[in-house]
């Protein structure tokens, strides 16, 4: 079930790039359903992921999945601040982080966003009276969603996910359901967050400033080729062929391997990682602006 969840997330990722099906509407519909399975709103997630693709390797605009700081900033931290920074990016934090990412964060985002909307509404009514009500949606800007479409996807995802939680709990017993569900979702999230991290955080990764940044180099040199056993390639929908994916995000997962093999002569210098290399990638959690590189903590 952990691997099944991971594959659903990978297919949801393809839908976010409108790559799994030829129809844009079918990608949206299937992506929404995969989002229900994984308890995460697919449309807001895919828009954030698109920002990652647009700026991969430009570490002034995109700080990676772990929000890395510069070496200079890190050296200015207090001793406790340095230890806490490293602690939050330790590999074991994938598990509580994964639980928060799938189970808590989407629900919290909806609650905080709605609370902010109510606060905004009361403020507008005090200033302009009831005439301000029709324009509340236009004037409210939330950091939890950026467009009306994102809000509706977030809302309906939460309605569907919570309804399924209640139904499954009533069927299996809430204790039994939550014990198994929490384990599955935590390990599933830990897997795909880990894979996403090592695909961009590794020794020699392209980590440039905005000035002189190259999209193509960000794709080829800022993304790894992660070699995995065949069964993991299937469950991850061949996302290990990450250079090709970043060069052209509209290639569906079932063609990534063929594209990689057809262009292998052009990809000789890409970073090749194996499963045993994954732990070492978690050492590269600082960005050096002067050398345009990722570094380990000194």
Notes on the protein architecture:
With 298 residues, the chain is mostly helical. The protein has one domain (2-296). It is 60% helix and 6% strand.
SSE topology sketch:
Blueprint: H1 2-16, H2 24-37, H3 42-55, E1 69-70, H4 71-75, H5 79-88, H6 94-128, H7 136-139, H8 148-172, H9 174-198, H10 215-220, E2 225-227, H11 230-235, H12 242-247, H13 253-262, E3 272-274, H14 278-281, E4 284-288, E5 293-296
Parallel strand pairs: 1-4, 2-3
Antiparallel strand pairs: 4-5
Helix pairs in contact: 1-2, 1-3, 1-9, 2-8, 6-8, 6-9, 8-9
Overview in brief:
This protein is mainly alpha-helical. The chain has helices spanning 2-16, 24-37, 42-55, 71-75, 79-88, 94-128, 136-139, 148-172, 174-198, 215-220, 230-235, 242-247, 253-262, 278-281; strands spanning 69-70, 225-227, 272-274, 284-288, 293-296.
């Amino acid at each position: 079930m952990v691997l099944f969840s991971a594959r659903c997330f990978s297919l949801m990722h393809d839908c976010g790039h409108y790559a799994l099906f030829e129809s844009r509407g079918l990608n949206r519909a299937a992506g929404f359903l995969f989002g229900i399975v994984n308890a995460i709103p697919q449309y807001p997630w895919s828009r954030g992921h698109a920002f990652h693709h647009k700026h991969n390797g430009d570490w002034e605009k995109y700080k990676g999945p772990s929000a890395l700081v510069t070496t200079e900033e890190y050296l200015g931290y207090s001793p406790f601040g340095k230890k806490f920074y490293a602690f939050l990016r330790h590999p074991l934090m994938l598990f509580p982080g994964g639980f928060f990412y799938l189970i808590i964060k989407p629900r919290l985002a909806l609650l905080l966003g709605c609370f902010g909307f109510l606060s905004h509404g009361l403020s507008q009514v005090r200033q302009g009276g009831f005439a301000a009500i029709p324009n509340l949606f236009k004037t409210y800007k939330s950091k939890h969603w950026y467009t009306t479409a994102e809000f509706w996807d977030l809302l309906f995802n939460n309605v569907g996910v919570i309804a399924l939680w209640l139904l499954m709990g009533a069927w299996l017993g809430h204790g039994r359901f939550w014990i198994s569900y929490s384990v599955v979702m935590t390990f599933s999230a830990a897997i795909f967050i880990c894979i996403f991290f090592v695909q961009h955080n590794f020794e020699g990764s392209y980590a440039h400033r905005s000035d002189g940044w190259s999209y193509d180099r960000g794709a080829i040199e800022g993304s790894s080729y992660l070699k995995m056993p065949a069964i993991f390639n299937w469950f991850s929908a061949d996302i290990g062929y990450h250079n090709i994916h970043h060069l052209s995000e509209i290639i569906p997962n079932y063609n990534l391997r063929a594209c990689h093999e057809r262009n292998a002569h052009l990809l000789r210098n890409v970073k090749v990682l194996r499963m045993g290399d994954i732990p070492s990638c978690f050492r590269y959690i600082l960005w050096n602006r002067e050398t345009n590189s990722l570094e380990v903590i000194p």
